[in-house]
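B., you asked whether I could sanity-check this one before it goes into the benchmark set. Here's the sequence:
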Amino acid sequence: MAKLHASHSHFSAWKMRRDGLRWKMRSWKTRCAYEGDEQWLEGEAQRLAGVTKRPERTWDWLMLTRGKWTWEVREDQEYLLRGSLEFHNLSHKREIFVPEVDARVKLLADTSTQGYCTHVKLIPKHTSGYDQVTNARKDGYWPAFILVADSKTSMEVELRITTNGESLKNLESAWLRLEYISYGPHGRIPKQQHVVLPLRFPVDEDEGGLSWSDRSRCTVLPIKTHLLTHMDNPKAIFDKYVKHHYQPGDILAIGETPLAIMQGRTRHPASVRPGILARMACLLFHPTSSLATACGMQALIDSVGKMRIVLAVFVGALLKILGRGGYFYRVAGDQAALIDDVTGTLPPYDQFISYGPVDVQSTVDEMQGRTGCEVAVVDVNDLSKYTGAVRILGASSGVDNAFLKESLLDNPAGNADQQTPFVLIRRKGKGE
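And here's what the prediction gave me:
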């Protein structure tokens, strides 16, 4: 199901120590520090652990965060990106070994990437465990490490991108795939974490292409942003991209998938292990449904629990026989309708399963209080103008729901790669 997107845990953890994203410039060598907010990133592990019901399976005891990243850039010659990531042992009593870690990189651009070279260096920064030798080796070898119960350790990831004549400005993003081994009482389990890093950021001159579209009762402005990631929080994105367009009385519509991405609620199918229930239940759904694949269904099971899905399948099937459809989604909960399987959004997130966002009402209330703008989180797609289906997941108290739905029926953000996750709505007669 396509969503209002950049076609792209509680909000109290999003409190800002500074407004906006941090951008620092130096002379011939530019250091671009896009770091998000310290408190927001400190809550990443808790948000990530909350994506699934843990620990349903023992291999979920070991978790790797996506971490905090900074950029060092030499224009048109070299990009250097540094990340600080954490391994967490979620078990309260079992030790977990981390014997192997490796990395691969995929560059995304609007041209061929054959002229670019990438190099990844993994540097252990162990902070807990037994008295182990943890110094980084010059040969890049990863020394095996024991992570004791209820503890964490960290590693630094250095990603260097160089070019043989092509401009690095053509790069849109880097997709880093970290492969690691979880070893312990559960056996030897290969796992993955995926980090998406934006490399292109809209600047003022790019906004010349932004234009207000006329509606019968309002005008709407799709807001282009960089490729959103786990490091972004909505308040910072508002300050950077929306604030200078906003006027009192406007409504800001946020796509539910972009919000979920900022909350880190995406999973690569390689991390999903479908069981018998998922393989059987997915066959009950229309082939275009996000629950019609074993991985899509298993992702839902991991989120809401096996027994709830068993009940939802039983009740939904029984009542459908009696001519009353839709009860699977009522019993399974909101995530059943909000989950997006692969192809559900723009690259590289089209390779991922995206859950729906959480704490939506507290998010819009907190954001409205901090920005003064009326805010709503919505689920809309290109079919909405035919079906009339615009779902409002949460809205601040000053939002007129009927007016909001009417304004978004033709999905002004689009379903392709417009990269406009926010839409500003202005009633006619308000400031223009």
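One thing to flag: The chain is about 20% helix and 30% strand. Otherwise nothing jumped out at me.
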